[in-house]
Amino acid sequence: MESLITIFVAFFLIGTIGFLKPSKKMKALSLIRMAASKEGFKIGSTNELRKKFKNWNSQVAIYQVKNSSDYKNLHFLRLENELQLYAPISFKYEKNFEIVREKISKLPSSILEIIFFQSNIAIVWNEMLGIDELLKIKEAILKI
User: Fold this and answer.
1) Is 39 part of a structural domain of the chain?
2) Phi and psi of 115, rounded to 5°?
3) What's the rounded Cα separation, in Å, for the pair 44 and 74?
4) Counting runs of H as helices and runs of E as strands, what totals does the chain give?
């Protein structure tokens, strides 16, 4: 009986330790997030920010970077393999819309949604695409 209890306790401890060990996916995500942090990205968001995104779900992440562009309060959404203006619709009638649309069209297809705020640019993308894709995204955003 004592040996049965000892074996049960040992299995319980081994199982608990197994749950504490990070999975391969979590290790990969932590490397990507650490690299993103070094590149100037802020990872994560508030519930209020998540509500602004239409393509956000638990499989993708929201990254933010400082807005050094001239564009403020624009929201582009990926529809039919193209980032299209979502808000404000009135911006389509401004004279520099075609210039902005051309620059936005050069962003990598991994960006599902992008919002230009006053102080930062927030994007929704799939983190599992890796660090190389993140660097492409950063380079493309800096060209806007």
Assistant:
1) yes
2) -125, 125
3) 20
4) 5, 6
In a domain? residue 41: yes
Q: Is 19 inside any structural domain?
A: no
Strands of 74-79's sheet, edge to edge? Answer: 42-43, 61-66, 120-125, 111-116, 74-79, 82-87
With a cut of 70, which residues of the chain have pLDDT below it?
18
The 10 Å CB-count burial string (b at 16+, else e) for 76-96 is bbbeeeebebbeeeebeeeee
Burial group, residue 130, by CB count within 10 angstroms (0-12, 13-18, 19+): middle
**The predicted structure's pLDDT at residue 121:** 92
Determine whether 63 is exposed, middle or buried from the number of CB atoms within 10 Å of its CB (0-12, 13-18, 19+).
Answer: buried
Residue 17 lies in a domain: no
Q: Which domain covers residue 132, as residue numbers?
A: 24-142
pTM above 0.85, yes or no: no
Could you give the 3-state DSSP secondary structure of residue 107? coil
Q: Collect all residues with Cβ–Cβ distance below 8 Å to 94 and sequence separation of at least 6.
A: none
Q: How many domains does the chain have?
A: 1
